[in-house]
Amino acid sequence: MASRISGDEMPVIEVDKKYLMGLCRIPEEELKEVLTMIKAPIDEEQGDIWKLEITPDRPDLLSPEGVARAVKGFLGIESEIPQYAIVDTDIVVEVEKVEARPYIACACVLGVKLNDYIIKSLMQLQEKLHETLGRKRKKVAIGLHDLDKVTPPFRYIQAHPKEIIFVPLGKSEKMSLDEILKFHEKGREYAYCLEGFEKYPVIIDKYGEVLSFPPIINGELTKVTENTKNLFIDVTGTDKNTVEKVLNIIVCSIAEIGGKIGKVKVGDKIYPDLTPESFELKVENTDRLLGLGLKEHEIAEILKRMRYSVIELKGGIIKVLVPPYRIDILHEVDLIEDVAIGYGINNISPIIPKLPTVGKKHEKEKISEKIREIMIGFGMQEIFSFILSNKEKQFSKMNIPEMQCVEIANPVTEEYTICRTWLLPCLLEFLSENTHNKYPQKIFEIGDCVLLDENCEIGAREERKLACAIAYDKANLTEIKSIVEALAKELNVSLVIKPYEHESFIPSRCGEIYINGKSVGIFGEIHPKVLENWKIEKPVIAFEINIEELFSKKLK
User: Fold this and answer.
1) Residue ranges of the alpha helices (H) in 132-239?
2) Rounded Cα gap, residues 328 and 310, in angstroms
3) Less Cβ crowding at N or C end of the chain, within 10 Å?
4) Do the Cβ atoms of 381 and 443 come closer than 8 Å?
């Protein structure tokens, strides 16, 4: 299950309906109906081209091959995890320290049969993954190459901007790395990904031929054409888990059109790692959420159609293996959602619960809505982020000492290991991912944070908070102070502001907000060290207020 991080629209892919129908082996009307059920509805039809709107939590559906794989499972044409042909190779990638993009994973697909449409489809998958999981190439970038045009072993190195020259994709003349950033259209578009680094990432072969200058451009030498028989794939980035997951998505998608997945030794690791993750699903939890009264074996059959492998049914617990391309499965509830989809959402009849009481909107939600309207009226854009985070984002990058917090037992990914204790790191992460967009950037978030509390029955409590951040060249303390005061006026509360020192803010450029003699928040100019940690080059002003403290009497 995914959460929104920005206001971006859902990704849309273009597919040739005849190609998709051929992959699925079903008639047009039936295919249209199924697409709506599997989170890939048709958004627009233009002749033989369908535009499919893909939900953000299913990046494995960003190609027609991925969509067909899901459709065939849903209809029972195929079931369980696809069995791809995997072979060993002697291809090695030697990895040096690359500060701009520390992580790389590679694989190859051998014996592929490509045509013009399939190549365009692969390029579309590549770019859609760049835009979504790759955060416009800043977090992850993918390179597809004609393996037969270069000679292993390959090397992943960092080089000075003028040290290496090669012919970039789509050009006929050699250019240095800095020339590509200045004059090549892709270089200008994605140069922001390498801002602040003196050396740039490059992948070269045994003889120094350049495969790729990630995340900017591949070399013309390894351009993929209809004559390409063997593909080499590189994925580089700043987050190891995402790099590995993206590689799995793309190799599994390519393998759907034929060919064998080849293993590649990258540093001391072997990729791709297509080992399925194991999860347990309790029948009682499925029934509690869906209310369908499904039996153990019925749930198992549905999961098989949703392309899971069922390895054990015992005592009301179903053990399943998750396909390596399903990176959205983080919890049992994600499996239950797929049970609902496999059963057919349209087949579930809603029932009004028999309760002796009538519900109403919680006071906290009423207050949050009012604040939301005020902030939007101030010209701010609302964002939504995960309540899960990690210690580096919540503490280290914010220049504050680590504090005790609610930690996740056996986290699935290093990206999400704790529950957030405050919102400002989430806003700064958003700004760091949008440095290529226009300024000023004015954002806010209203969300829950989790704090340890021994007085609570479960040892922790949730707090609703409001945070706001503004980034542009002229951002200053007076501006953020005036917004805090204007907010208080609109909410009809009296506040007192006192000087305050906080490690995340510039000394003497920070204030503490008091309501009725009680501290409810802070504001100020973000410290340059914090901005450097997040790779934000513009001044940032921000505030964070505890809404529950602000309206403690109403919320009791």
Assistant:
1) 177-183, 185-190
2) 18
3) C
4) yes
**Alpha-carbon distance 556 to 19, whole Å?**
60
pLDDT at 554: 54
- Of 441, 510, 436, residue with least CA distance to 473: 441
Beta strands 140-146 and 460-471: pairing type? unpaired
d(CA 64, CA 21): 10
With residue 347 as reference, give the H or E element that holds it. Answer: none
DSSP codes joined into one string, 92-111: EEEE---SSS-EEEEEEEES
Q: How confident is the model at residue 552 (pLDDT cuts 50, 70, 90)?
A: low
Stretch 59-65: mean pLDDT: 96
d(CA 447, CA 281): 29
Q: Which CATH code fits 86-271?
A: 3.50.40.10
Q: What percent of the chain has pLDDT over 70?
A: 97
pLDDT digits (tens, 9 = 90+) for 127-150: 999 999 998 999 999 999 999 999
The CATH architecture that domain 277-346 belongs to is 2-Layer Sandwich (3.30)
Q: Any residues with CB less than 8 A from the CB of 514 and at least 6 apart, and which?
A: 495, 496, 497, 498, 520
Model pLDDT for residues 396-422, shown as the tens digit of each residue:
999 999 899 999 887 777 888 999 999
Distance in angstroms (rounded) separating the CA atoms of residues 231 and 538: 41
Phi then psi for 136, rounded to 5 degrees?
55, 45
Gap between the Cα atoms of 322 and 248, Å rounded: 13
The yes-or-no answer to whether 12-74 and 363-555 have a common fold is no
| Residue at 471: amino acid letter | A
C-alpha span between 343 and 244 (Å, rounded): 31
Antiparallel, parallel or unpaired: β 154-159 and 92-95: parallel
Residue 189 CA, distance from chain mean position: 21
- Return the bridge partners of 155, or none: 94, 204
Domain ranges in the chain are 12-74, 86-271, 277-346, 363-555
Q: How far apart are CA 343 and CA 292, in angstroms?
A: 9
With a threshold of 0.90, does the pTM exceed it?
Answer: no
Q: Exposed, middle or buried by CB within 10 Å (0-12, 13-18, 19+), for 292? A: middle
CATH architecture of 12-74: 2-Layer Sandwich (3.30)
Q: pLDDT digits over 171-199, tens only?
A: 999 999 999 999 999 999 999 999 999 99
Q: Which pLDDT score is estimated for 7?
A: 37
Cα(471)–Cα(227) distance, rounded to whole angstroms? 49
Domain range 363-555, CATH architecture? 2-Layer Sandwich (3.30)
